[in-house]
Amino acid sequence: MADDLTSSLKALTASDLRSIAEKAGIDVSSCKSKRDYVRVISQSSSSEKRIRQLLQAAPSRTGGKAADMEDVKNDLEEISARSSSARDVPEEEDMEVERSIDKALLLRPLFFEIDSNTERAWNRMILGDFAEAMKLNIKSRAEAVERLTNFYLYSAALSIRAAETLLRDMKELDSRMGSELRTALAEAKMAFIHGPPKRREDAVEEIEALTVRAVESFMTRTSGAEQELREMLEEYASFGVRTRGSHELLDIALNAKRSCDLGQYSDLMAEARAQAERDKEARLREIDDAFEQVRTAIEAAKAAGADTKGEETGLKDAKKAMKRNDFREAIELLAAIERTADSAHLHRVRSNGAVEAREIEEITSSIRESEPGLEEAARYGLDVQEGLLFVRRTKDALEHRDVVTASKYSMRMRRLTKSMEGDVKRLRTAEGAPRHVAGARCGQCGRESLYAYLDGRTSCDECGHSFSSGPSGDGTAPPSGPSQARPLKSSSGKTTGASKQRRRRSLVKK
Fold first, then answer.
1. Model pTM?
2. Where are the alpha helices (DSSP H) in 239-261?
3. What pLDDT shows up at residue 500?
């Protein structure tokens, strides 16, 4: 065919060429790139007139560099469509490629001597020594050809190694583009060690063009990811999430990106996002605790005689805000509800001395009952850190005459202690091996829940009433009726929950 027809074919993309070949009935199943399509179509036996008609119907391609990049993309899509076995270099051949690339990179060609000989030949020409000038010129040309060949190898090795490193580091690439790059890289590697110079040159040009496009896509995608992360951190900070660690990781990631360390950049971006999610989860746990604190504030105010209907409605609204992930509104509602409940509670305490006295007595009694129970639970290996923290905070608030705060903490302290009672009872039973005293009733609550321990003491498992009847010879305590019970007294002469817990801890197997 005429050269102008070949030129027209070259102006089309690979997809257009494939479409023309199909319409003209030309077999292009063996074609892998645009050059293959041009060669097969131009050398086919089909009518030139038919091909020219199809060319006129084909869309014009005058996009310059953009069209070239589209050609590369289409070419690589063709390669990607091949079987999966052609996408990766076999392991044994890949090792050979790596050794060859390493060797080529060590033999970086230099052209200083060629430039020097060329300059000397020119100087001899000026002086009229044409024979010497010709000799120097021949020598320069021979060295240039040899070093140019080495340069092609060096240049191909450098591009393949750079493309391979970038492909490994650019973790933000979409799977399609990553597949294209891997396929093109495999083709370039195989051409480097097995292909003729023309194939090697074409494969390297393809991987270079595609890598440049991939880097541009990577930068665009990562810029969007950075902006998305900033907006996410700003949103998290709006409801109290500590985002300083994520911001620091983001800054380090941007420095790595500016230094072209794309692998570290991707790792740091992923860590910054993961850190933000961990900080968010920690903040949500704090908000859950705030719900418990506000619920307790409402209960304390209600127990003091305050009207808490509005606060209870507000708590429901806060729960609804949490369900629709409006954390900021939920926090604001919780803060307002707690302030209102505490204000109503404080008004009741200050306006009625009897309420204040009653609450102080209840708080003091809660401390006396809960602290020994928590200490016993700690002896059994249970986690009591939160409970002991509430004990300390309750004592501090009570010492500063902050009855409202002390009441809230004492309620939470009691609930936490009560939640451990089942585990404590089970562990206490396993350690002390008590025996149920059948037919005997407790002198305080009147229930048949007396247990005899090996040290001769008997305790009621319901109300905690304990008494000692002396150790028996067989290691058990004899049954005692209510009239025989001798309650354990506190220093004030009253049976207390604290003495009950202390006695329970002492009733263990000797």
1. 0.53
2. 244-258
3. 42
